């Protein structure tokens, strides 16, 4: 299917720019606004543009961008994570095996002489190729075909292969196992390393890291990427012939605040935790560290005490820089459902760690409304007592 070029006409673009945040159901039910654009197609442009506001600001700001279905935006990398990936690699030629909307290819093009973008959805490939020309990315070649089939015919040496398997099944349900992705990377590893010595694989955050290490060869690095304390991607750097233990690198990006921590899994196994009742400060590792499983190593490296083996909350007498959230402890009380009522707290942020009740249950129980400057951590101490830690937030360091 060809692009509907009428969408790029000035009056249509003006409508899209003025209405991307409007009530889309209302627009859909209106009489067709533009003769050559079905109302559903127009609404798809509005929906997709709205998805780009935070995730893809370059696309959102650029005039005459042609948008695909919103699902393609949802499945694409954000500009933040795409930029991070691109900074890890460089060379003459990279193949983006299942390029989708092309956000990763856009950033890879800043690091490679040439990027090959494969996308078997011909319509999406045409949209992406059009946008690359709009962005003047002349070093990206788009091929509307299956990336595996293209790779099998590829004769030129590739510096890197980037693989981002589709993680939705035929019914659009999310999947995360390596064997369930499209393509199934486990079936094509021999082909990958026949064509290149370097492979970057993007997987779902839900994938178990130890499972990935068991199934993938030549794992050099594993990157756990969080944006604003939400894990977005796992990146696997595979380098042919590498047999050393992989390095796990965690990063949490929030504006210009970047928190980093790295370790070896063997270091985590060898590390030991010290335990203490809550002292003056409380620390909560960012989600990338929690996903990585560095529960003992993080405490050991920062000379912190844990409240309990399974709580993953840390404490110290003096304030230190830390890759996560930091809190000043105001008081610690034994847990009882009347504890908060007696303290007269009306509004506070509630968190549970290694605690038998959910946040929703505790809010109903305590009648405490969300928000404000106070934080209540419902957790278990080293003596397995249920406690409530009353805290106030300490602003993050600019970078760790």
Count of helical stretches: 16
Largest sheet: 9 strands, mixed
Enumerate the strands of the largest sheet in spatial order, edge to edge or round the barrel.
3-2-1-4-5-7-6-8-9
- Rg measurement, Å: 25 Å
Percent helix range = 25-40%
What is the distance, rounded to the nearest whole angstrom, between the alpha carbons of the first and last residues? 49 Å
Class derived from helix and strand content: alpha/beta
Question: What assembly state would you assign to the polypeptide chains in this entry?
Answer: single chain
Which of globular, elongated, flat, extended, rod-shaped describes the shape?
globular
What this model shows, in words?
The protein is α/β, with parallel strands linked by helices. 31% of the residues lie in helices and 26% in strands. The chain has 16 helices and 17 strands. It has helices at residues 10-19, 24-29, 39-55, 57-61, 70-75, 79-86, 103-108, 122-134, 147-153, 189-195, 209-215, 265-270, 287-292, 295-301, 339-343, 359-366; strands spanning 91-96, 112-118, 140-143, 160-163, 198-203, 219-227, 230-239, 247-254, 257-264, 274-275, 281-285, 305-306, 314-316, 324-334, 349-353, 374-380, 386-394. A nine-stranded mixed sheet has the order 3-2-1-4-5-7-6-8-9. Strands 10-12-13-11-14-17-16-15 form an eight-stranded mixed sheet. The model has no long low-confidence stretch (mean pLDDT 93).
